Amino acid sequence: MSEPEFLISVLDRHQDWATIVCLIGGGQEINTGEAGLPEWFSAISTKYSHWDVYASGSLSEKEYTNGEDIYGSLGSNQLTVKEELHLAVSLRSFRSELLSEFIGSVLNLDKPKATELFSTVQKTYPIVLTKNLQQAKEWLRTQARGGEQYGITAYSGALRLKPEGIHIKSKIDPKNWFLNESSDVRSSMFLEDVATEFDIQGLELDWTCVVWDPSLRIAHEEWEFKTFRGTKWQNINDAVRRRYLLNAYRVLLTRARQGMVICIPHGDQQDQTRLPEFYTPIYELFSACGVPSIDVE
User: Fold this and answer.
1) What pTM does this model have?
2) What span, in angstroms and rounded, lies between the C-alpha atoms of 26 and 32?
3) ∠ CA 200-57-289, rounded to 5°
4) Nearby residues of 124 by Cβ (< 8 Å), 6 or more positions away
5) Fewer CB within 10 Å, N or C, the chain?
């Protein structure tokens, strides 16, 4: 069962009636069984057609629909569209309600829209680029004030960040990582242990460093989706796994309330698993959208 089908099945056991209120973010599905908004509509239309559905009519972006006609699967007598149900303003990043839209444009490789959005975002929400992890750490420390929290995040499949000193398979203890003081080696603010998209989904820090891994890279103006197996990279061909990978970066890039630094390593010409050409197009993408570098040439 998908997550939506399971939840509906539980409430469907009631003899009289039940109500399910769903707050569904676009592009947030990152794990097996999470299929996003389309799966809710699919489960209702195929198995629970006796349920009434009230939904926003503004869910047209691909990150919500995966390119499907989600409304078309329900009968007109079953679906009631109410525009008031659309929560249009993101409150995760209080400095910029446009952050999610900017990141969505970048992940859609829509440079003109991303550039336009960033011109507004950067006025209140600093985003910078670096190729040096130590430089990223220094930037985080200088940005945070008082009790503001900061930390490093990376994709859960980023096995080739090990040469950068990031061991993604070393699990964090969330309560220590999020709550402990900066002097504690287990704290996010010690900048040693790294949180993945699974650790930080639904949670935030004030400032984050997102370290990019070549599992998601650009070739011929399109995303390439990779997984590292044994000693080499392999293609990800399954559409669902591709979506999970893209959404993992969407989650990581939207966890900072006040600002972030994106660290895209140099790579190593002597290491066939970390060639510079894996990273350079990503750096150039963000740079073309207006994101400034803090690297000293």
Assistant:
1) 0.79
2) 16
3) 50
4) 95, 96
5) C
Within the chain, strands assigned E span: 53-55, 79-81, 127-130, 150-154, 194-195, 205-211, 216-219, 222-229, 232-235, 256-263
The sign of the dihedral angle between the CA atoms of 30, 105, 132, 202 is negative
Strand 222-229 to strand 216-219: parallel, antiparallel, or no bridges (unpaired)?
Answer: antiparallel
- The conformation of residue 131, written as its DSSP 8-state character, comes to S
Tokens of 3: 């997550």
Q: Which residues of 72-99 are buried (b: 16+ CB within 10 A; e: fewer)?
A: ebbeeeebeeeeeeeeeeeebbebbbbb
Residue 205 identity? L
Place of tokens 């299929």: 35
44-99 pLDDT, tens digit each: 888 898 999 998 877 666 656 666 677 777 777 888 888 888 876 666 555 677 89
Is pLDDT above 80 for 10?
Answer: yes
pLDDT at 189: 97
140 within 8 A of 150, measured Cβ to Cβ: yes
Separation CA 227–CA 232 (nearest Å): 9
What mean pLDDT do residues 17-33 have? 72
Please give the distance of CA 181 from its chain centroid, rounded to a whole number: 26
Per-residue model confidence as pLDDT tens digits over 230-244:
999 999 999 888 988
- Contact 206/149 with Cβ under 8 angstroms? yes
Q: Is the pLDDT of residue 38 over 80?
A: no
